[in-house]
């Protein structure tokens, strides 16, 4: 913990505390010891208190105690308190002799050691002082986090305005188009569902498999528009409707099909997809013909690489992922635990 790391409010609080300590010591001594002696005693003792407190919480505590070097912490604290006490006693005696013209007495070590016990109490107070500083620092950080959270929630609400505005516009367009071209209206509806999935579902940790499948089917229907002669897609689905999986986990394979596995000039593009739940696992498999123009490229691109990293974070080594490019078929296989 360094002084430079303190928040402005914490520094101001410390200044007020030390000002109060100075005034308290000074005015408690003034009636008995007079002005000059009270000033000397106040300055010397307050300075020694500050050295003990900040020496402990800024140096000894983080260097030794927080690093679990407890024996060294005890030794250094003991030596530190002795040295501080001796210096405080020596400074007091010298200043009294100089400013108050007190007759000089021999300064012996035993007399100086008499100032050490007073530093022990200050050392204990330094621990309390450190806890107080940590508390107020944490309190300020908590307030800032809450403020940032409120700001983030406000920004989220702002960001949701535009997508929902677009949803409403798409719905209006859908009803107008449906009167003259029901097929095109259906495509608009699928596009609206895809956008709603990205806004409402994709940020979640898990989504129902049925919603994920609906998203994939909407995506495939929109992709078919770009294929001149269409494509025949067989999609087998056998799973529990209540099953939940991480969002966008299966999409990489489907994207690769339309990016690298569809020949727009071919009259027959055959794609087979299956999503089957069996024996505590969910198995997803895609199969399509290779397109000669891209057969030499790496069909998976960065999508499979990123998917593999995500699967490792989610399932460790408990998943199976394989890509088979033998012959004319390109087959992708994924098996994840439930």
From TrEMBL:
Q: Does the keyword Transmembrane helix apply?
A: yes
Highest taxon in the source lineage:
Bacteria
Q: Which residues cross the membrane?
A: 12-32, 38-63, 70-95, 115-138
| InterPro entries, per the entry | Bact_2-comp_sensor_kinase, HATPase_C_sf, Sig_transdc_His_kin_internal
**Keyword annotations:** Kinase, Membrane, Transferase, Transmembrane, Transmembrane helix
Question: Pfam families, alphabetically?
Answer: His_kinase (PF06580)
How is this protein annotated for GO cellular component? Answer: membrane
User: What are the residue boundaries of the Signal transduction histidine kinase internal region domain, all occurrences included?
Assistant: 152-228
Q: Name one GO molecular function term.
A: phosphorelay sensor kinase activity
Keyword Thylakoid set for record: no
Protein name per its UniProtKB record: Histidine kinase
Species for this entry = Mucilaginibacter mallensis
């Amino acid at each position: 913990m360094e002084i430079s790391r303190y928040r402005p409010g914490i520094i101001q609080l410390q200044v007020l505390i030390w000002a109060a300590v100075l005034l308290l010591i000074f005015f408690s001594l003034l009636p008995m010891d007079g002005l000059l002696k009270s000033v000397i005693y106040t300055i010397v003792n307050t300075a020694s208190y500050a050295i003990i407190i900040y020496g402990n919480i800024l140096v000894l505590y983080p260097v030794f105690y927080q690093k679990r070097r407890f024996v060294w912490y005890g030794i250094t604290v003991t030596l530190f308190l002795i040295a501080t006490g001796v210096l405080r006693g020596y400074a007091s005696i010298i200043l009294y002799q100089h400013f108050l013209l007190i007759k000089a007495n021999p300064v012996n070590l035993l007399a100086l050691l008499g100032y050490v016990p007073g530093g022990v109490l200050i050392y204990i107070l330094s621990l309390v002082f450190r806890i107080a500083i940590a508390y107020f620092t944490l309190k300020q950080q908590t307030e800032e986090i809450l403020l940032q959270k409120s700001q983030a929630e406000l920004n989220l609400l702002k960001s949701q305005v535009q997508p929902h505005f677009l949803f409403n516009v798409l719905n209006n367009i859908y009803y107008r188009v449906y009167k003259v071209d029901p097929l095109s209206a259906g495509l608009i509806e699928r596009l609206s569902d895809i956008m709603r999935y990205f806004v409402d579902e994709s940020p979640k940790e898990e989504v129902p498999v049925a919603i994920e499948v609906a998203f994939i089917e909407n995506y495939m229907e929109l992709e078919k528009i770009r294929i001149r002669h269409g494509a025949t897609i067989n999609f087998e689905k056998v799973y529990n409707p209540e099953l939940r999986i991480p969002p966008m986990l299966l999409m990489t394979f489907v994207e690769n099909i339309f990016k690298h596995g569809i020949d727009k000039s071919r009259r027959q593009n055959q794609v087979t997809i299956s999503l089957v739940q069996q024996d505590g696992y969910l198995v997803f498999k895609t199969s399509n013909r290779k397109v000669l123009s891209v057969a030499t490229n790496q069909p998976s691109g960065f999508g499979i690489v990123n998917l593999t990293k995500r699967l490792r974070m989610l399932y460790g080594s408990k998943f199976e992922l394989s890509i088979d490019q033998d012959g004319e078929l390109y087959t992708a296989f994924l098996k994840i635990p439930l």
